[in-house]
Amino acid sequence: MAVIGGSRLLWGPALGAVIFFFLKDLAGNLTEHWPAMIGVTVIVVTVLMPAGIAGTLAELAGRLLRRTGGRA
Q: Which pTM was predicted?
């Protein structure tokens, strides 16, 4: 869960837990091989977003704030 959400931010593992259980329920309804789908998700997130989903979202928010000059 910390890998999916990211461990750099306090709310990263919590976000990872929400995403994990959402994917587990969704994939569990589709197939009995849901652990494989979770594994693929962990691999994809690790390769494409090394800081996790929370870290990536925080980075994008920082870029947006810098681009707008601090105005949200």
A: 0.79
pLDDT in tens, 17-64: 999 999 999 988 888 998 998 899 899 999 999 999 999 999 999 999
How long, in residues, is the chain? 72
Task: Give the C-alpha distances (Å, rounded to integers) separating 26 from 16, 17, 30.
Answer: 15, 14, 7
22 in Cβ contact with 41 (< 8 Å): no
* Domain spans, the chain: 10-66
CB-based contact 3:42 (threshold 8 Å): yes
